[in-house]
Amino acid sequence: MDKTNIGKELRLIRKINQLSLRDLSALTGISFMRLGKYERGEEIPTQNSISCIEKALNCNFEELDRISKENDKLFHEFFDSLFYHTQNLDYFKKKIEISKNEIDPKQENVDFKNAKIILMEYILHVIEFKLDKTEETEDYLLDYFKNEAKCNAILHDYIGLKFRIKKDFKNAIIWQEKALKITTNEKVIAMVHFHLSGSYKGMRKLLQAASSLEKASMLFSKHASYRRANYCLAEFALILKADGQYDLAIETYKKSMIGAEQLEDTDFIAVDYRNMCWIMILAKRYEEALEYLEEATMKEPKHPFAILYGIWCNYKLERYDEAKQIIDENHQLEENKTFSNFYDLFVKLLKCGKGVPSQTCLNSAVKIVKSLNHNEEYERCIFYIDILLDLLDRCGNETEKIKYMKMKIDLLGND
Q: Distance between CA 232 and CA 96 in Å, rounded?
């Protein structure tokens, strides 16, 4: 390894091992001030100093340099797999483990800490929602990549995505907008805009979300990432849906589904059909919704959303026998913590039909509305408010009806 580059690696390894400069000084016999100069690139370490540092940190800088070059290639392959959405996460996990376990045959206990391997692990943790594991290395990575535009921008983007997963959309936007200012790499910019659009959508900034998607789509198409470009089309349809433009959303989503089938993107086709069914439900096009639901169920049977959509559509079409059959075939949802309340409400709705609902039915609807509102799931909350308003209307409870009408107006105002 070029001695001028050792300082940066030294700083990373020292920090990961949670050593201060004074701690390392005690282990190496080199003054902490001189070690600081090595890390900042203000002084080039002698070979004797390098040997002392390697012994203290259980590393070998020459071997680390060799592995780093291999990991540069692996990181390039990893990022391209994200960009083109061809990633096989298990493949990269195995590659990462091989790299981490690789040692110099001449050394018995060499512990390598490579920044790009750590960055890949960070991204994988975010993708897999293992957000607690990201805290361990975030500061190290920000410090290490502060002068490397591409990796720094990628890191900022995935920190933003981490906040978006937590529904902290404000911080997500801050990090992702910073990422755009850091790099000129078009592939990175495309990925950032794609993720940023979701953060904008979470804040109900639909125009900004659409603008980001348009920029991402253009760059994905330019670099032949047609899957990602098609995802942009699907996401744009969801923005139209969020804006209440259901007919246009349906036509746009149909185009994205045709694209997914042409690209043989089977991972997302079941989701596409369910999403289309949901848009049809919002548009009150229940017959068409059931057609898409049939396709979704064929591709992914027993999905909770598909079950609930099937019950609802048949209920609205007054096909009570069909709705009851779906309920009877899916009692497993009673034990599902996420979906049991919705399933329970639909069971009670079916029992009352068009008649006056029971108090327990009203209580179930109220419980769901409060939960969705608390979790800021506003689109679904509005949907269930409409159900509750219908039930309250049947009961003649004008006071509660006015209360929830005001809630709906407030939520639509947030939109």
A: 30
Q: Which residues contact 17 (CB under 8 A, 6 or more apart)?
A: 57
Residue type, 161: L
Tokens 């059959």 belong to which residue?
325
3-state SS string for the chain:
CCHHHHHHHHHHHHHHCCCCHHHHHHHHCCCHHHHHHHHHCCCCCCHHHHHHHHHHHCCCHHHHHHHHHHHHHHHHHHHHHHHCCCCCHHHHHHHHHHHHHCCCCCCCCCCCCCHHHHHHHHHHHHHCCCHHHHCCCHHHHHHHCCCCHHHHHHHHHHHHHHHHHCCCHHHHHHHHHHHHHHCCCHHHHHHHHHHHHHHHHHCCCHHHHHHHHHHHHHHHHHCCCHHHHHHHHHHHHHHHHHCCCHHHHHHHHHHHHHHHHHCCCHHHHHHHHHHHHHHHHHCCCHHHHHHHHHHHHHHCCCCHHHHHHHHHHHHHCCCHHHHHHHHHCCHHHHHCCCCHHHHHHHHHHHHHCCCCCCHHHHHHHHHHHHHHHHCCCHHHHHHHHHHHHHHHHHHCCHHHHHHHHHHHHHHHHHC
The series of mean pLDDT values per 10 residues for the chain, 415 residues long, is 73 84 92 90 89 87 77 92 89 85 46 77 96 90 92 98 96 98 97 97 93 98 96 95 94 92 78 93 97 91 95 96 96 95 96 93 97 91 96 94 95 71
